[in-house]
Design goal:
There is one protein chain. This protein is mostly helical. The protein has a domain of about 90 residues: Non-ribosomal Peptide Synthetase Peptidyl Carrier Protein, Chain A. About 55% of the residues lie in helices and about 5% in strands. It is built from 4 helices and 2 strands, in the order H-H-H-E-E-H. The chain has a two-stranded antiparallel sheet with strand order 1-2. Helix 3 crosses helix 4. The protein is rod-shaped and about 115 Å long. The model has no long low-confidence stretch (mean pLDDT about 85).
Length: about 140
């Protein structure tokens, strides 16, 4: 029994495939010339929206200062008025061991050797944080 001979078209197809494999592939295009530092920086800013982020950061910083001023200069004196005998809460201090304090928050007794805890500024910071967190 003899094997059937491949058709001329099949041979031609196989030869074309071999030719395609043996031909060198075209070289890749050359890399683009360097843009320069300034152009790369501009591309980075436009791609990642860095300018908007910087503006938002600066605005947030100043809004925080406005809120802090609102709390320290308006809310704390109002709280001090609402609680009789407290005065301005932002300058509130606690003496340990307890002693009498003058209007500036200094001990009246010159021989007192305790510590003063100025919790007023801490309370201002806590209230400011709460307001900023909810805004």
């Amino acid at each position: 029994m003899s094997k059937p001979k491949p058709k001329d078209e099949e041979i031609l197809q196989v030869l074309k495939e071999i030719k395609a494999l043996l031909e060198p592939k075209p070289s890749p295009p050359p890399p683009p010339p360097p843009k320069g530092l300034w152009n790369e920086f501009i591309d980075f800013i436009s791609k990642y929206k860095v300018l908007g982020l910087a503006v938002a950061f600066i605005m947030g910083m100043y809004v925080g200062q406005v809120v802090q001023s609102l709390v320290k200069d308006i809310l704390m004196p109002l709280i001090g008025l609402a609680i009789p005998g407290l005065g301005n809460l932002s300058t509130f201090k606690i003496a340990v061991p307890p002693t009498a304090l003058d209007a500036e928050g200094k001990p009246l007794d010159p021989n007192w050797t305790g510590q003063l805890f100025g919790i007023g500024n801490f309370l201002v910071s806590i209230i400011t944080f709460i307001i900023v967190a909810f805004v």
